[in-house]
UniProtKB/TrEMBL annotation, chain A:
InterPro entries: BshB2, GlcNAc_PI_deacetylase-related, LmbE-like_dom_sf
Name of a matching Pfam family: PIG-L
The organism of origin for this protein: Paenibacillus glycanilyticus
Lineage top rank: taxon: Bacteria
Annotated protein name in UniProt: Bacillithiol biosynthesis deacetylase BshB2
TrEMBL record, chain B:
Family annotation (Gene3D superfamilies): Hypothetical protein YojF (2.70.180.10)
A Pfam match: DUF1806
Lineage, highest ranks first: Bacteria, Bacillati, Bacillota, Bacilli, Bacillales
InterPro entries: DUF1806, YojF_sf
Protein name in the entry: DUF1806 family protein
Length: 220, 115
């Protein structure tokens, strides 16, 4: 996997499910392009106590995203300028054109995104859908594998067990630094635990990242 | 930096923006993850951004969280649950209501320029 394309709608979507995997692939020589569709400008978290406002949040989150990408080692970050919460309503031709152009340019060996329908936030589902729609339109031989994250309730009943998993225990430093970068969104101390969690617990909780390879024969 | 609401200061800014075309951002949200974290919750959100309005009368009321009412020529704008304002934005009015976890629940913003 030399060329990796990540397509997600919000700054911070990369943290929990993917950052360790990306850090590992980059360590092994991959070049990662991360296309983040929005700036998460409609997010509800503004720091605690709140330090951001609706007006300042987009710029704050842009900075947090850049810091997170630096922690992971991502070489190529693109912010596509879509508006948070609107991906499902966006003109599909317009959206797909953007994604198609990225695929043409990057020529990825693999694409990471959200599993359409099983990723809770409407922007997540709509982003995954757009990726799958666009890749599905390519001739079969040209389709890069699409590795999807899923976390909705009962998603395994519908889509089964993940078929890809990465042991990222050696890259937890990057992952925790990415988590801490998004300081308006996460109270890292609450998530990681101030001191209560042992290293072992953290490794178990954050040490594996799992994906579903999208099956295009089920797509129509 | 967002600060706890200072009602007199907010009232001053409301007055300074009345009787003219202003852009409004008005929003209320429970968050897209409400039902994911607790199935009994009903996720709801609504916003309107950069609509142009004009009001002739305005008031911030309550003891905190605060309410704001704006009287327009043909109707009203109402917002409840406001807790914070942006003090370093003298030209605009940035109001928000945050819950006990600091998450935004409601926001009301007025500006002479689009957001
Ligand atoms: Zn997200």
């Amino acid at each position: 996997m030399e060329r990796v394309l990540v397509i997600l709608p919000h700054p911070d979507d990369e943290v929990f499910g993917l950052s360790g995997t990306l850090a590992q692939l980059i360590d092994q020589g991959a070049i990662v392009t991360y296309a983040c569709l929005t700036l998460g400008e409609m997010g509800r978290n503004m720091g605690f106590p709140p330090f951001a406002s609706r007006v300042t949040l987009p710029q704050i989150r842009r900075g947090e995203l850049e810091e997170s990408c630096a922690a992971i080692g991502i070489q190529d970050l693109r912010m596509l300028g879509f508006h948070d919460k609107t991906i499902e309503f966006e003109d599909k031709v317009f959206l797909d054109e953007h994604i198609h152009a990225l695929i043409e340019e990057v020529k990825p060996d693999v694409i990471f995104t959200f599993y359409p329908g099983y990723s809770v936030h409407p922007d997540h589902d709509a982003t995954g859908e757009a990726v799958v729609r666009t890749v599905g339109r390519l001739p079969e031989a040209d389709r890069p594998p699409v590795y999807c994250m899923a976390f909705s309730r009962d998603h395994e009943q519908a889509i089964g067990k993940p078929d890809i998993s990465f042991d990222v225990r050696d890259y937890l430093k990057n992952k925790l630094a990415a988590l801490r970068a998004h300081r308006s969104q996460f109270q890292a101390a609450d998530i990681i635990g101030s001191k209560q969690h042992t290293d072992k617990e953290i490794r178990e909780r954050f040490g594996t990242e799992r994906f579903w390879t999208y099956k295009f024969e089920t797509w129509k | 930096m967002m600060q706890p609401i200072h009602p007199a200061e907010v009232q001053r800014r409301l007055e300074s923006l009345k009787d003219q075309d202003v852009y409004i951002h008005l929003e209320m949200t429970t968050g897209a993850y409400a039902a994911h974290h607790d199935a009994s919750k009903h996720p709801a959100a609504t916003f309107i951004t950069n609509a142009v309005i004009q009001y002739s009368h305005s008031l911030i009321s309550g003891n905190g969280p605060y309410r704001v009412g704006l009287k327009m020529l043909q109707g009203w704008i109402y917002s409840e649950g406001l807790t914070h304002y942006e003090e370093n934005e003298p030209e605009r009015l940035i109001l928000a209501g945050h819950d006990q976890q600091g998450k935004l629940v409601v926001s009301l913003q007025l500006s002479r320029e689009p957001f």
